[in-house]
Design a protein that fits this description.
single chain, alpha+beta, 8-stranded antiparallel sheet, 3-stranded antiparallel sheet
Length: 189
């Protein structure tokens, strides 16, 4: 899953619920909704599943002084057993941060291992989330204009990953595209 969402995990602290302890490798939280967008953890299977179950049951969990809560919507989870230790590595991802699962017309999340915007993933997600005609070559300029016009906002509460919340307002994106074409910064051919 890291190659699909662009993250590089690092050990950031323990996460526990009901006496079960796993270790967090990264998280992203939307501070406006207080919902967890991404969580990566490793530990014994019972601990990882216990923390996952608590979060899915709308119980708050804490990782590295950050309270994590379930966001509205569906989560995608992927668990792999680490070969040498036998521990489980679980990644939870909100569906609005996954290209193939995101719902059109709703704000979505773009994650990356660095603060550099993942332009190809952004344009693919914007294409799925809006009813706006897009060209891949517009990605960098749309990102820049989206940041400038607050259609793209960085997530402030992240560890081990960088993230942005992106508006799916088709009318606002269409207005940016029209201005870009008029200015000549977006080529139509």
């Amino acid at each position: 899953m890291p190659n699909l969402i662009g993250v590089a995990p690092e050990l950031i602290g323990s996460v526990s619920f009901g006496g079960l302890r796993a270790y967090g490798l990264g998280y992203a939280v939307d501070s406006d909704t207080e919902g967890t967008v991404y969580l990566s953890m490793v530990g014994y299977r019972t601990a990882v599943r216990g923390v996952w179950a608590a979060l899915m049951d709308n119980r708050a969990i804490e990782l590295s002084n950050q309270v994590l809560r379930r966001a509205e919507g569906v989560y995608i989870s992927k668990t792999v057993q680490l070969p040498e230790s036998g521990l489980d590595h679980m990644v939870l991802l909100h569906h609005q941060a996954a290209v193939l699962q995101l719902e059109a017309g709703q704000a979505f999340y773009v994650l990356n291992e660095s603060d550099q915007p993942p332009i190809e993933r952004f344009i693919a997600m914007l294409d799925r989330a809006t009813a706006v005609p897009l060209l891949n070559t517009w990605g960098a300029d749309l990102w820049k204009q989206g940041m400038k016009n607050q259609l793209i906002e960085p997530l402030a509460d992240t560890r081990g990953v960088e993230g942005w919340r992106v508006s799916a307002d088709s009318e606002l994106w269409l207005a940016l595209i029209e201005k870009g074409i008029q200015r000549g910064t977006l080529a139509t051919l």
